[in-house]
User: Which sequence fits this backbone?
């Protein structure tokens, strides 16, 4: 895998693994249409799983305190993501909504999207990814509260197994005031209006 955290696995070994899978599926890796497939797949993995090379905490390290005393909820909604299920290596595609109540400092909104990207571009379980995003924001920024809602369409369910399309999963993680105060939680959920209400 390109830029892998595991230097003991070479690009050549990754490509040979793809050739093995092609042969197992009944294909001939030596035929013209598949000659470059192992290289392309290895390069795609380098892109799909580049989150292993990122430290989400670093994205949240630079904050701003000159916000004229702003202490209301900040919400970034509809952060699109692409991930892969760690059980079947199938895509998970969806969106993330993040909200927090600052405690004297805020972070650039693009950094919230980068945190989502860093966790999404790893093998994932949606529940775990939801918790990871909320927990790192709470731990690094120390806001009064954090709310994260993740929507995901799981290709491991739509392209194999039960073959059910049009199904999405919603997970949430509430920390601090989002967990303890029903009004804060309700305000956040109104802002993001998960599902079809806002579309």
Assistant:
């Amino acid at each position: 895998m390109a830029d892998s955290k595991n230097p003991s696995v070479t690009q050549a070994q990754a490509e040979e693994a793809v050739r093995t899978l092609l042969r197992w599926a009944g294909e001939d890796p030596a035929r013209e249409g598949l000659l470059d497939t192992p290289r392309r797949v290895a390069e795609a993995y380098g892109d799909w799983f580049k989150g292993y090379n990122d430290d989400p905490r670093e994205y949240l390290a630079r904050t701003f305190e000159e916000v004229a005393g702003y202490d209301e909820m900040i919400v970034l909604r509809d952060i699109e993501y692409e991930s892969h299920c760690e059980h079947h290596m199938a895509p998970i595609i969806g969106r993330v909504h993040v909200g927090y109540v600052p405690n004297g400092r805020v972070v650039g909104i693009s950094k919230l999207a980068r945190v989502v990207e860093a966790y999404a571009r790893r093998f994932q379980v949606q529940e775990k990814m939801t918790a990871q995003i909320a927990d790192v924001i709470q731990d690094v920024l120390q806001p009064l509260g954090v709310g994260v809602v993740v929507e995901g369409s799981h290709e491991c369910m739509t392209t194999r197994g039960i073959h059910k399309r049009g199904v999405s999963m919603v997970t949430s993680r509430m920390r601090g005031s989002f967990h303890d105060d029903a009004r804060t939680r309700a305000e956040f959920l109104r802002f993001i209006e998960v599902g079809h209400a806002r579309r």
Remarks:
- The first strand starts at residue 63 and ends at 64.
- The helical segments are 11-24, 37-48, 56-59, 109-120, 126-141, 155-158, 177-180, 182-192.
- The beta strands are 63-64, 74-85, 91-101, 106-107, 123-124, 145-154, 169-176.
